[in-house]
């Protein structure tokens, strides 16, 4: 099965579980968006670059030249139908070539730049205190 199709199926299953098991009058629901990976320099107009290792400059402009990961469209489609707050960190992190804290990428890279998880926490905190 295609991984994006599997992701969509999993999200719909999760959404059904939410509908059945969560009291929406008493519970705030948040879903963190997709943390991107940066494997291919052609996606940010630097052909030949294969990882984010050593990348410190942000991508110029306000959109990622490589486009959004396909899973973002699936995520927004499923969450649009539910009263779930999306912590949309994808664009925020796409514009930093080293903007992902995960070691679970293609080659186990862990850019772990200071700031990315901290910003995610600030976004979540803001949503919580303003509700």
TrEMBL record:
GO cellular component terms given for this protein: Golgi apparatus
Domain of life: Eukaryota
InterPro entries, sorted: TBL, TBL_C
Domain Trichome birefringence-like C-terminal: 1-126
GO-annotated molecular function: O-acetyltransferase activity
Transmembrane segments: none
Family as reported in the entry's similarity comment: Belongs to the PC-esterase family. TBL subfamily.
Protein name per its UniProtKB record: Trichome birefringence-like C-terminal domain-containing protein
